[in-house]
Every structure is written in structure tokens, then in C-alpha cells.
Amino acid sequence: MSGIEGKVVAITGASSGIGEATALLLAERGAKIVLGARRPERLEALAARIEEAGGEAVWARTDVTRHEDLSALVKLARDRYGKLDVLVSNAGVGLISRLDDLRVEDWEEMIDVNLKGVLYGIAAALPVFREQGFGHFVNTVSTAGLRIVPLQSVYAGTKNAVRTISEGLRQEAGDSLRVTVVSPGAVRTDFAERMDPAVKDQIDKMMEIALSPDAVARAIAFAIEQPDGVDVGDIVVRPTAQG
User: Fold this and answer.
1) Which residues pair with 242 in a beta bridge?
2) Given this model, what pLDDT does residue 2 score?
3) Distance between CA atoms of 198 and 214, rounded to whole angstroms?
4) How far, in Å, CA of 35 to CA of 195, rounded?
5) Is there a contact between 127 and 148 (Cβ–Cβ < 8 Å)?
6) How far apart (Å, rounded) are the C-alpha atoms in residues 14 and 6?
7) Among 10, 13, 225, residue whose Cα is nearest residue 124
């Protein structure tokens, strides 16, 4: 199997930003989309938008910090479409701050969403992929894990943990499963909305050079459309002006 048409793709964090852009692009190219996020009203509107354009989409409220929600999302894909080709683990939070601020609850939320959320997705999809004999994990990471800077220690730590787990998964996967890590740089999303105001100002300045989420969606589509036997392991997508 190659290309995107006819593939069933589940996406977490699908209600906005990179997840939303990926859902729209893949649906346009003929994929059947299974949308997951915590905001049902956004998911319902996105599914309607996809269907109005001639695509196919279903959705389920999905909190990636709950293992059972990921299992339900994978089950929805199989119940509705009979299979799951790709799981895009895109949900993430970036509650960046100085370590001295001791925002322990923020640290725990980033670990729960960015790291455990990906692990729960693997736990839900891996048995299905093994049973089918095919499947593709696409994990959204970050260039924050490639260039460590102040304020992003815990955030980068969670993203680097996902990078490490993804590489281990790739090596364990064998020749029938694929694993891709996509590392976006600055992207125009609502990433900074919950940050400390002083930190948010710094991030907002970066938005002047930031990419559209569509750029990352195209990178994800590139990895998915490759023919069997071709595993695109790591893609970095950032603005040319980003240091």
C-alpha cells in the first residue's frame, strides 16, 4: 500500500494548529480521518468541514492523559473503517518557564500530555498494527529537543523522551511497521496561550517568523505517502530565519 488515498488516520490534538491542518490536508488527499482532542465543539466543526469538502471524518473527545481515551479512539477507527493505518500523536502542551519558578504542576502536565500521551497511543495502536501486519506511528516532537535553551528544560525533556522512545520503537517494529518523528520549529498556533505573560511575550515575538501549520502538515503527509518498505524516520521543519 502506498500513497494517502484510502488510509485511515487517527490524529490527536486535532482541534487546532498542526493537528487541524494535518486533518484537512490528509482528508483532501483521500484519507479517512479519525479526530481526537479535548474540545468536542471544535472536533464536530472540523469533521463537518471535512465532510462538506467531500471527505470522510469521525471524531471522539480524547484526553491523551487517559489511556482509555486513546483505546477508544483506535477502536472508533476500526469500528467505523475496519482498520487503522496511521496514528499521528500530535497533542502537546508547552508550559515553559524557569526551573526556579518551581511550576511543578506544569511539569507534571507536560509529562502527562507530551510523553505519557504518546505512550498511551502506542499502547492502544501497537497491538492493532501487529494484528493487521501494517501501521505507522507519526509523533510530533520539537526542535526544542535539538537545541536546548533556557525556559524549555522540562518541555524539551519530554520531547526528547518521545524522540528516544520513537527510535526504540522503530528498532523493535520490524519490517512491517513504520515510525516517524516530526520536529517543528516555530509554528503559528495557540502554543503560548497558557504561558506566564513574560514568557509569552518572548514566544509571541518568535511568531513574526513562524511557519503556518500547513508546512508541518505537508511534512507529515510526505512521510505517510511513502510506499511500503520506506520509513521516513526524522523530519525537521522550521523557518529559514530561526536560529
Assistant:
1) none
2) 56
3) 28
4) 26
5) no
6) 19
7) 10
Which amino acid is residue 219, in one-letter code? A
| Alpha helices for the chain (secondary structure H) | 17-28, 40-52, 67-81, 104-110, 117-132, 153-173, 197-206, 213-224
Q: Are strands 86-89 and 56-61 parallel, antiparallel or unpaired?
A: unpaired
Identify the pLDDT of residue 80: 98
* Contact (Cβ atoms closer than 8 angstroms) between residue 187 and residue 221: no
The mean pLDDT of 175-193, rounded to a whole number, is 86
pTM of the model: 0.93
Known catalytic residues? 155
Between strands 8-12 and 32-37, the pairing is parallel
- For the chain, the 3-state helix, strand and coil shares in percent, each to the nearest 5, are 50, 15, 35
Residue pointed to by grid coordinates 507534571: 108
What is the C-alpha radius of gyration for the chain, rounded to an integer number of angstroms?
A: 17
What is the rounded CA–CA span in Å between residue 88 and residue 213?
Answer: 15
Cell readout for 22 is 494535518
Share of the chain above pLDDT 70, in %: 92
Task: Give the 3-state secondary structure of residue 32.
Answer: strand
pLDDT computed for residue 1 by the predictor: 46
pLDDT in tens, 48-95: 999 999 999 999 999 999 999 999 999 999 999 999 999 999 999 999
